[in-house]
Amino acid sequence: MIKIIEKIEGEAKLNFNFKENKIDFVDVEFMSTRNIENILKGKRAFDALVINPRVCGICGHAHLMATVQALESCYDNLILSDKAKIIRELTLNFELIQNHFKWFYLTLYPLFGKKQQILKATYPSQLMSKAIAVIGGQYPHTSYAIVGGVACEITEIDLIKVQHYIAQTLKFVEQNLLKVESEVFLKTEDANSLYDGDLTEILDEIKNSELLGYGKSYDRFISFGENSFFKKGKSVKTKVTHNISLVDVKESQITSSFAKNVSFKDKYYEVGPLSRAMINKTPLIIDVHKKYGDSIFSRILARIYEISQLLEHSRGLIKKIDLSQPSYIEPSIDISKLSGSGYSAVEAARGTLIHRVELESGIIKNYEIITPTQWNLSGGTRENHGVSQRAMVGLSDVKIAELVFKSFDVCSVCTTH
Amino acid sequence: MEKKMRILWLSAITCNGNTHSFLNYPHMEQFLDDFEFIYHPVIDSKYSLQEIVSNEIECEVLIIEGAISEEFQRGGVPIFEIIKNYSKRVQKILTVGTCATFGGIFRESDYKDTAGMHFDQDRALHNFSDFLDKTISISGCPIHPEVLVNTLYAIKKSVLLRVDNFLRPKEFYAYTVHNGCTRNEYFEYKVDNHKFGELEGCMFYDHGCQAPFTHGSCNKILWNEVNSKTRAGVPCFGCTEPSFPRDNLFNTKKNMAIPEHLPLGVNKRVYLTLAGITKAFKIDRFQKKILDD
């Protein structure tokens, strides 16, 4: 049975194979590609800062950050000010937050037979977009992160504005999503002692429809993006190791779809907020995982919990900015004279995003992008399922399979870059 | 209650950037009272994609986002066919974003002859020329949400919109992006030592800023109601124009130290004369930081 999954920044085709009324195998197919990697070939390095945000309308900022870091890693001794690093981290946090709101109120709500909450999605995500715009000029599609720092200069007044957007967003979270103070929520360590807001409404829905254990996959998590909040590492069940290398990440072509598979040491891993929280050993998420494993319940809670965490962390980051530092330090070598290769890994809303670049005298010879959805949606074989495939196998209801599929916050445009 | 105007939002070869830029429209509640989507890439709608592409559902406005190619299909139906079917029925067609209007970044995608609906960059195309009269171009990468929404209201209220050669409403595209930039004085007095990471300076001379010859309201309406790229120190990349994306976007191409592309309507001799005069001013406050004593 073939089902078209819509409104995931495009579509995907799921071909369900049943055996004795249970899903036995699911073919995941994406129907188109834009081939950004080809578009980049032969272009000047800096032009990638403008082209790559256009990989995706909802997480383009992560692509900007991945691009600038990949280009910077082509240098031997490039210096960035702490101020520039913090500013970049802030705007990327804001993008993650706006994404999570949209996913929760636009994607998740209808899956439980509820009306999409458009205004609850747009109000807080607009606040986060404004916070990015105060710093980077606009959202979506700014290119304000440049090799050597950021193009902008910010003042105390800009920081006041950004703090207001954060405070207002926190208020929204407390009044709608949680019905409890964010501080209390952040200290919660028991996944069953949640409160009364929109989040609990959805989680209760899962409990009441007996979907609690649904959507489990390999219980293997990975995350490569590192910053002042996220840690690099992998977690197999609850065993966390931080010593992992991008060398072991492989991308491979598959015949049935325009998406490419991604594996680490030939195994499929889940990426995204649940993975990040497992690797960060976040108490609430460790608890929910202990109770319900890598299920849809855990995935939803982890994504929403990340909103509160990132808002809180961003508040702290702002206090660390030393405005007397330079925003931009001109690299010692002009990029047009640079040959070499570089890579980057950043945490986008949906998980680890990897960019690799090869330059010859400042011209892009090769560019490779691995997006988070590729990790989660790798289309495996019957013998070796991809993460989302495995999470759907054994279900009998296609509608529930769609819920499981969308619990990974699928992004079609990213996948088919 | 007045009838809601029905919109079909059709995605072609796109990044969904216009979709998400639209979600930043500040008065969404009001908008949703006045308009409804028979299909939209993220907002729920009455019809599925399959129903949209295999039938002809009643609607008044067709929005196309993304570049188009004969080869590209949506829901198993060639996009050309879907566009033709709905173009016949609707009152107005909006090509939303630079890809749908001129081809944009995805003009270079692997699909055959990828372009905008009526233009391949600045070259007119004829596949859809029957519908030229009912098309309005909302170019930009991405579109400015207020430009899109206010154009939709103009259609709803039957306001006559005057458009330029590329069908863009003059109300928004008769201005240059340069208009209203906080760095204007550095441009006027030809202070040409811009450095990234500073509040001061104009990016036209060295850093590729195309604002003086790009049509748009970025510095008039502002982005996300708060800022613009050029105010933030990011050059204008000319994203509303047929030529987007040009090559070498962070550099100003010059001939004999004169920028190759001059402000709209200004000829080289006049520009040189003007530059000579303005450079004689030597204005102190432009030599130091704007917030310094």
UniProtKB/TrEMBL annotation, chain A:
Mg(2+) binds at E37, I369, H417. InterPro entries: Ni-dep_hyd_lsu, NiFe-Hase_large, NiFe/NiFeSe_hydrgnase_LSU. The keyword Iron applies. GO terms for molecular function: nickel cation binding. Its cofactor is Fe cation; Ni(2+). It comes from the Bacteria. Ni(2+) binds at C56, C59, C411. Fe cation binds at C59, C414. Pfam families: NiFeSe_Hases. Keywords: Iron, Magnesium, Metal-binding, Nickel. This is Nickel-dependent hydrogenase, large subunit. It comes from Sulfurimonas denitrificans (strain ATCC 33889 / DSM 1251).
TrEMBL record, chain B:
Residues 173-247 form the Cytochrome-c3 hydrogenase C-terminal domain. Keywords: 3Fe-4S, 4Fe-4S, Iron, Iron-sulfur, Metal-binding, Oxidoreductase, Signal. Residues 15-154 form the NADH:ubiquinone oxidoreductase-like 20kDa subunit domain. One of its GO terms (biological process) is anaerobic respiration. One of its GO terms (molecular function) is ferredoxin hydrogenase activity. Its cofactor is [4Fe-4S] cluster. It holds the Pfam family NiFe_hyd_SSU_C. It comes from the Bacteria. [4Fe-4S] cluster 1 binds at C15, C99, C141. It is found in: Cell envelope. Belongs to the [NiFe]/[NiFeSe] hydrogenase small subunit family. Heterodimer of a large and a small subunit. This is Ni-Fe hydrogenase, small subunit.
